[in-house]
Design brief:
The structure holds 2 protein chains of 2 kinds. Chain A is mostly helical. Chain A has helices at about 1-30, 35-40, 45-55, 60-75, 90-125, 130-140, 145-160, 170-200, 205-210, 215-255, 260-270, 270-300. The radius of gyration of chain A is 24 Å and the shape is globular. The relative contact order of chain A is 0.13. Chain B contains 13 helices and no strands. Chain B has helices at about 1-30, 30-50, 50-55, 85-120, 125-135, 140-150, 155-165, 170-180, 185-195, 200-205, 210-235, 245-255, 260-290. The chains are: A mainly alpha, B mainly alpha. At the A-B interface, helix 1, helix 6, helix 7, helix 8 and helix 10 of A face helix 5, helix 6, helix 11, helix 12 and helix 13 of B.
Chain lengths: ~300, ~300
C-alpha cells in the first residue's frame, strides 16, 4: 500500500511540475508588461516600473525567476495579493473552511439524492418510477447551478422565507447553496448508480443469493449495492472537481467568502498573484484528492491490489 | 466492361448504404432522438427568426417600460432597462447555440487530432501529449476555462476558446483509446503495407472508424459548453452588457428576484430546455451508435 502511494505521488510529480511552470508563466502570458500588471490601475513612471522589476526579480532570466518562485512556494510562500497586500497563502487558508464546508455538504446531498434515485430506478426497472427518476436526473444534469441557485432563493427565501438568501455562518445559510451545488452532480450520479445496479442485478451470484432464501433487503444491501458502488466511487473524484468548479458560482451568488468567489474576484480585479497562487493550490489539492479516491477504490473493492 | 465495373461498385456499396439506412431507421425509432431533435429544431428556428418574431430591439433601452410583468405586449415581461425579455431570450438563443457549437468544434477537432496522433504514434509523442492532458485534468474544467479567460481577456470569443480548450482532454482520451484498439487491425496493417503515409492513415482510416464515440461525446459536449459559456458570462467574464446572452441576463436579473422574478425565470428556462434537448439527443445517439458508453 505505502509502496503504491509512493508510486502514485512520484507519478504525479511531472504533472505538478508542468502545472507549476504554466502557473508561473501565466503572468508572462498575459499581454503586457508584468511590472505594469503589478502596478494595476495606478499610473507609474518608467523609474517606478524599473524599481518594481528590480524588486520582483523580473529582470532576471525566466528560469531563475521560476526557480525562486518554486523555492518560495515550497516554503509556503505564494507571494502577496496585489489588492489586499496580504500573503496569498493566508488568503487561501482564510477562505478554505467555507469552501470545504460547502463542498462536503453538497457532496453529502448529492450522494444521498444520487444513490436514492439510482437505486429506486434500478429496483423498478422499466416501470413508471424508473422513467420518472431518470427524467428527474436528466433535469438535474441539464440545470445550470446558477439557475437552480436563483430558483432556490426565489422559492425558499423570497416566497416561503424559510432560509436567508445570502451570507454565511450557521446551518440555515448553508442549506440553499449546498442544495444548489448538490443537485449539480446528483443527476449524473443517479444515472451511474442505476446502470451499475442493473449490471450487478443480472449477475449469477445474485440468483444464488436469492435461491438460498436471503431476504430482499440483504440481497440489495449486502450483495448488490456493495458491488454496484465500486464504479460509482470513481466518479466521486470527478464529482468533487465539479463541485469545486460549481462552488465558484454558488459562492458568488450566495455571497459566501470562499476560495471560488475569491478566485473570480481575483480574475475580475486582475489580482494575478492571487490567481496564480490559488490555481497552484487547487491543482495540487485536486491531484491529492484523486490519489485519495484511488485508495478508497481499493478499500471498497478487495479484488484491486496495489502493486 | 464499364457496366461490370459499375455493377461491382454498386455491389460493394450496397452493404454500406443498407447499413446507413438501418442506422437512420434506428435513430428515427429512438424516442430520445426524435424529441431532442424536434425541440432543438424549434429552438434553432426561433433563434433564426428572432428578428421576424419580435418587433423589439434586444439591446435598446426603454426606461418607461422598466420591470413590466408579463402581459400581451411583453409576453415574458421587461427587464430593468425596459427591454423585452422574450426578444432577448430569442436573440440569446443565437449566441448560446453559437457558443456551444464553436467551443465543441475547437475541442473536438483539437482533442481528436491529439488523441489519434498520441494513439497511433506512441512512444515519446504519446507520453508528451498525455502528460499535457494530465496537466489539463489537474483542474476542474470550468476553473481551467476561468484561467484561460484570465489570460486571454474577457470577451465572448475568448469564452468559446476557453471552454473549447478546457474540454480537449475528454476527446483526446476517448480517441486515443479507440485508436489503440484499432491500430493493429488488418485494414490498418494493409494500408501501412502499401506504403500509405501516417497522416493519411490517421485521417482517412482511423478517425472515420472512431467517429461514433466522438459524435456521442460531441453532442453532450455542446450541452456542457452552453452551460459553461453562460456561467462565464454570468460571472462577468464573457459577454458584456448590453448583449442578450442568457448567462448575463440571469446575472443582471438576480438583483430583482423579489420584484421581477420573470427577468431570470425565462432565460433560465431557455438554458435548461436547450440543454435538456441536446442531452436527450446525445443519450439517443449513444444508445444507437455506441451502446458501450451507456450509463
Amino acid at each position: 500500500m505505502s509502496q503504491y502511494l509512493t508510486k502514485r505521488f512520484i507519478q504525479a510529480i511531472p504533472t505538478v511540475l508542468i502545472v507549476s511552470i504554466l502557473v508561473f508563466l501565466m503572468l508572462h502570458l498575459i499581454p503586457g508588461d508584468p511590472a505594469e500588471i503589478f502596478v494595476g490601475e495606478n499610473v507609474a513612471t518608467p523609474e517606478m516600473l524599473e524599481q518594481i522589476r528590480e524588486r520582483m526579480g523580473l529582470n532576471r532570466p525566466l528560469h531563475e525567476q521560476y526557480l525562486s518562485y518554486m523555492a518560495n512556494a515550497l516554503q509556503g510562500n505564494l507571494g502577496e495579493s496585489l489588492n489586499s497586500r496580504r500573503p496569498v497563502v493566508d488568503e487561501i487558508l482564510l477562505r478554505l473552511p467555507s469552501t470545504l464546508e460547502l463542498t462536503v455538504a453538497a457532496m453529502l446531498i448529492s450522494t444521498a439524492l444520487g444513490l436514492g434515485l439510482g437505486i429506486l430506478a434500478a429496483l423498478n426497472h422499466n416501470t413508471i418510477i424508473d422513467s420518472a427518476a431518470m427524467l428527474l436526473a436528466l433535469v438535474g444534469i441539464s440545470m445550470p447551478v446558477y439557475w437552480s441557485s436563483l430558483l432556490l432563493i426565489v422559492i425558499f427565501s423570497v416566497n416561503l422565507r424559510w432560509f436567508p438568501p445570502i451570507g454565511q455562518g450557521g446551518l440555515d445559510r448553508l442549506v440553499l447553496p449546498a442544495l444548489a451545488l448538490g443537485f449539480l452532480s446528483a443527476g449524473s450520479l443517479a444515472r451511474m448508480v442505476r446502470s451499475s445496479m442493473l449490471e450487478v442485478l443480472s449477475q449469477d451470484y445474485l440468483l444464488t443469493a436469492r435461491a438460498k432464501g436471503l431476504a430482499q433487503r440483504a440481497v440489495i444491501f449486502r450483495h448488490t449495492l456493495r458491488n454496484a458502488l465500486i464504479p460509482v466511487i470513481t466518479i466521486l473524484g470527478l464529482t468533487f472537481g465539479q463541485l469545486l468548479g460549481g462552488a465558484v458560482i454558488t459562492e458568488t451568488i450566495f455571497a459566501r467568502l470562499g476560495i471560488g468567489r475569491m478566485y473570480v474576484e481575483g480574475i475580475l480585479n486582475k489580482d494575478f498573484t492571487l490567481v496564480q497562487g490559488t490555481t497552484l493550490f487547487i491543482a495540487l489539492a485536486y491531484v491529492v484528492i484523486n490519489i485519495g479516491i484511488d485508495l478508497v477504490y481499493g478499500y471498497v473493492d478487495p479484488r484491486i491490489h496495489y502493486d | 466492361m464499364t457496366n461490370t465495373a459499375t455493377l461491382k461498385l454498386t455491389e460493394q456499396n450496397r452493404p454500406r448504404v443498407e447499413q446507413r439506412r438501418r442506422l437512420l431507421r434506428r435513430l428515427r425509432r429512438s424516442g430520445n432522438v426524435v424529441v431532442g431533435v424536434t425541440i432543438l429544431a424549434l429552438i434553432a428556428a426561433l433563434a433564426l427568426l428572432a428578428p421576424v418574431i419580435s418587433s423589439y430591439n434586444p439591446e435598446l433601452m426603454a426606461p418607461l417600460d422598466r420591470l413590466q410583468p408579463p402581459s400581451a405586449a411583453h409576453l415574458f415581461g421587461t427587464d430593468d432597462f425596459g427591454r423585452d425579455v422574450l426578444t432577448r431570450v430569442l436573440f440569446g438563443a443565437q449566441i448560446s447555440l453559437v457558443v456551444g457549437l464553436v467551443s465543441v468544434a475547437v475541442a473536438s477537432v483539437a482533442g481528436s487530432l491529439l488523441g489519434v496522433v498520441a494513439g497511433y504514434t506512441g512512444g515519446t509523442t504519446d507520453s508528451v501529449i498525455m502528460r499535457l492532458i494530465d496537466v489539463m485534468l489537474a483542474f476542474p474544467s470550468i476553473l481551467l476555462a476561468l484561467v484561460i479567460v484570465a489570460i486571454l481577456g474577457r470577451s465572448l470569443p475568448n469564452v468559446m476558446l476557453a471552454v473549447g480548450i478546457s474540454t480537449i482532454p475528454v476527446y483526446t482520451r476517448i480517441v486515443r483509446g479507440s485508436t489503440l484498439s484499432i491500430k493493429e487491425a488488418d485494414f490498418i496493417l494493409s494500408a501501412r503495407a502499401i506504403g500509405a503515409p501516417s497522416g493519411r492513415i490517421m485521417l482517412r482510416h482511423i478517425l472515420p472508424n472512431v467517429i461514433a464515440p466522438i459524435i456521442v461525446v460531441t453532442t453532450n459536449g455542446i450541452a456542457g459548453a452552453i452551460i459553461s459559456g453562460a456561467a462565464l458570462s454570468f460571472l462577468g467574464l464573457g459577454a458584456q452588457p448590453p448583449t442578450p446572452e442568457w448567462g448575463l441576463m440571469l446575472s443582471e436579473g438576480r438583483n430583482y428576484l423579489r420584484q421581477a422574478s420573470w427577468v431570470t425565470t425565462y432565460p433560465g428556462l431557455a438554458i435548461m430546455i436547450t440543454v435538456m434537448a441536446i442531452n436527450l439527443l446525445g443519450d439517443g445517439l449513444r444508445d444507437v451508435l455506441d451502446p458501450r458508453l451507456r450509463i
